[in-house]
Amino acid sequence: MVFRGLTTIQFIEFMCELLRSKNFNINDVNNLLLEENASFKFIFESNYGVDVYPISKIEENSENSSHTNIKLLVNRLENAYQEKDYPSVLHTCSNIFETLAKDILGTKSSQNGTFEKIFSAYLTKTLLPEEISNYMLSIYRKRNKEPLAGHGSTKTPTIDREKATILKELTKAFINIEYYLQFENNLNT
Questions:
Q1: Strands 48-52, 40-44: parallel, antiparallel or unpaired by DSSP?
Q2: Interatomic CA distance for residues 31 and 132, integer angstroms
Q3: Which helix (H) or strand (E) holds 138?
């Protein structure tokens, strides 16, 4: 029951403390994480840390992944791209950014806010460069203006395959980088 309600980052910090105090064996913990298809494992190199799997590994994991909503959205993103539904690619990337921000913030108050409303709080927690965070916000805003991305429209969408490809791949990179930097930062503090 002690683990219930912890964000992924809080769980990792807590587990590192338990491993440091020798309450758990790293191999036992990693075996449990493997069984649950977690997106990371614990390592020991003069101190405890985590090895975060790349997003492609997260995508391959089962529904028990610790990044369930991110995984679901990445799958939705890939499906929209395969179907050549590029406005849906934009929409899904926007949802991913909002979900990522809510996970990083980890507060109850942020869970019901839109990405735009929680953006300033997210800026205080993210370790991504401000230019990337601002790009994420611009994509979120573009979703509301792009035909068929956020609202119904009789206009033809302007997002094409090239733009959708770039957005899809950048979004997956941002997920990977954000979690990696957060894990590294929290374990080194």
A1: antiparallel
A2: 35
A3: helix 130-145
Residue 127: CB atoms within 10 Å:
16
Quick one: DSSP state of residue 41? E
Question: CA 107 to CA 172: how far, in whole Å?
Answer: 23
Which pTM value belongs to this model?
0.68
Q: Are 70 and 58 in contact (CB under 8 A)?
A: yes
- Judge contact between 15 and 114, C-beta under 8 A: no
Number of residues in the chain: 189
Bridge partners of 43, per DSSP, are 49
Residue 78 CB-density burial (10 A; 0-12 exposed, 13-18 middle, 19+ buried): middle
**Tell me, what amino acid is at 28?**
D
Write phi, then psi, for 181 (nearest 5 degrees). Answer: -65, -40
| Spatial separation of the C-alpha atoms in residues 98 and 116, rounded to whole Å | 8
Range ranked top by mean pLDDT from 66-70, 92-96, 109-113, 183-187:
92-96
What b-and-e string marks burial along 136-170, b requiring 16 or more CB atoms within 10 Å of the CB?
Answer: bbebbebbeebebbbeeeeeebebeeeebeebbee
Type of residue numbered 47:
N
**62 pLDDT more than 50:** no
- pLDDT tens per residue across span 20-58: 888 888 888 887 877 666 777 888 877 888 887 665 554
